[in-house]
Design goal:
The chain contains 4 helices and 4 strands. The chain is an alpha/beta fold.
Length: 112
C-alpha cells in the first residue's frame, strides 16, 4: 500500500496553547502528504482557535465541560474521517515537513 493512496488526519488537542501553535502546526500543514489538520479546543481564553485558523488548521470548538480524553479523541476521529488519524499535543514540535511522512510510512509498511 502506498502513502499517496491513504487519507491522513491529525487532531491536535489544545487548551490555551496559542504560544505552541506556530511551532507545532506549520510542519503538519505543509507536509507533502497534505493531511487534514484539526485543532480541537475546549474554550481557550488566549485566542488559540483564531491562531489555529490563521495558520491553516480546521478548528472544532467544544465546551470545556464536555472535554474528555477518550470521547474528545473519538469526536475528532469522526470529524476527520480519514484512513489514518494521528493525535498530538500542541507542545510536540515536528522538526521538519517530513515528520509526518516518516511516521505514516511505518504504519503503512506494517499494514501491507
Amino acid at each position: 500500500m502506498r502513502i499517496s493512496n491513504i487519507s491522513i488526519g491529525i487532531a491536535v488537542l489544545t487548551y490555551n496553547s496559542r504560544h505552541h501553535l506556530a511551532h507545532c502546526l506549520p510542519p503538519l500543514i505543509n507536509s507533502p502528504l497534505k493531511p487534514k489538520v484539526l485543532v480541537i479546543d475546549p474554550d481557550s481564553t488566549d485566542g488559540t482557535p483564531d491562531v489555529a485558523k490563521i495558520l491553516g488548521a480546521e478548528v472544532l470548538k467544544i465546551p470545556y465541560r464536555e472535554f474528555n480524553h477518550g470521547l474528545t479523541r473519538e469526536k475528532g476521529r469522526k470529524v476527520l474521517g480519514t484512513d489514518i488519524v494521528i493525535f498530538m499535543t500542541p507542545d510536540a514540535y515536528p522538526k521538519d515537513n517530513l515528520f509526518l511522512e516518516k511516521l505514516v510510512q511505518q504504519m503503512v509498511e506494517t499494514r501491507a
